[in-house]
UniProtKB/TrEMBL annotation:
It is a multi-pass membrane protein. Keywords: Antibiotic resistance, Cell membrane, Membrane, Transmembrane, Transmembrane helix, Transport. The keyword Membrane applies. This is Transport permease protein. Its main location: membrane. The chain crosses the membrane at residues 48-66, 86-108, 129-154, 166-187, 199-218, 258-278. It comes from Promicromonospora soli. One of its GO terms (molecular function) is ABC-type transporter activity.
Length: 291
């Protein structure tokens, strides 16, 4: 009898200990992992500074080169080149801080064995990805805030003063950020090594910046180029941001003659879902040569 009681007591202690040692939830672990990712990002000061500075520097260069001598006109309404250029830079910042950053960092972590080691820990895969998305969201928010502040304070770019435009900004920003992040995770399996990640990841987004109406007014781009760019998220994020920061009359200057908010949401949501499915099926924790 005493032996049975002792065994029962030990079982209860084991169960209590197991409960006490139970891991936190997936979301909480994801936030903790996000904190680790953010700390590592801040420690790489050169990467952080250049990442935040890129859209700001590009805005400053184009606004200074063209200035007020080359304003953009649509339906008799004139805006400075800085104002017209701002939406494209916001869109570029979103894609660079999500798609490019995640695709490159995950490819490097796979190559140096970080992913393999993390896979051997109790950390759920979902928590790892949540940490990456958390890092992307924080960096995009900071980068966009800095870009808007510089545009408004240094280049006198007027910002929206009504809730409607800011609501449009919010949903384009959130959907664009989510799409870019998921696309980055899915595309991270394409580079065969960490050393090739830079060329493989940067080249497509660099080309799309020139063909999606980021660096040039969309009316100056060939129709076939815009049609090709319409297949990718950057063009639609930039168009959505133009609807926020440009006068409503500029909708007529778009190839379709409208802002196409419905099409923007549909294309971004489609890319989000497709990238989620592709990423789930193709993501690898090991290098190509590691089985």
């Amino acid at each position: 009898m005493s032996t049975t009681a002792s065994t029962t007591g030990l079982n209860r202690l084991d169960q209590t200990g197991a409960t006490a040692r139970r891991l936190p939830g997936t979301l909480r672990l994801g936030l903790v992992r996000g904190g680790v990712e953010l700390l590592q990002f801040v420690r790489e000061r050169d990467s952080m500074i250049f990442g935040f500075a890129y859209p700001i520097v590009m805005l400053a260069i184009f606004a200074t080169v063209f200035g007020d001598d080359d304003p953009i006109v649509a339906n008799g309404v004139t805006v400075s080149f800085a104002q017209y250029f701002l939406p494209g830079m916001v869109a570029t910042g979103i894609m660079l801080s999500t798609y490019q950053t995640l695709a490159m960092s995950i490819a490097v972590e796979r190559d140096d064995g970080t992913l393999k080691r993390l896979r051997a820990t109790p950390l759920p895969a979902t928590s790892y990805f949540l940490g990456k998305v958390f890092l992307s969201l924080v960096t995009v928010l900071v980068q966009t805030a800095l870009l808007l502040a510089v545009a408004a304070l240094l280049f006198d770019v007027p910002l929206p003063d009504d809730a409607g435009h800011w609501a449009t900004f919010a949903w384009v920003f959130v959907l664009g950020t989510a799409t870019g992040a998921v696309c980055g995770v899915a595309y991270s399996s394409v580079p065969r090594s960490g050393r090739s990640a830079s060329a493989v990841v940067v080249t497509p987004i660099l080309v799309l910046q020139f063909t999606s109406g980021v660096f040039f007014p969309v009316g100056q781009l060939p129709g076939w180029m815009l049609d090709l760019s319409s297949l990718f998220p950057l063009k639609w994020i930039a168009q959505g941001m133009r609807s926020v920061f440009l006068p409503d009359s500029f909708a007529a200057a778009e190839p379709s003659g409208a802002w196409q908010h419905g099409a923007t949401a549909a294309v971004l949501a489609t890319w989000l879902l497709v990238a989620l499915v592709v990423g789930t099926r193709t993501f690898r924790w090991r290098r190509h040569d590691d089985g």
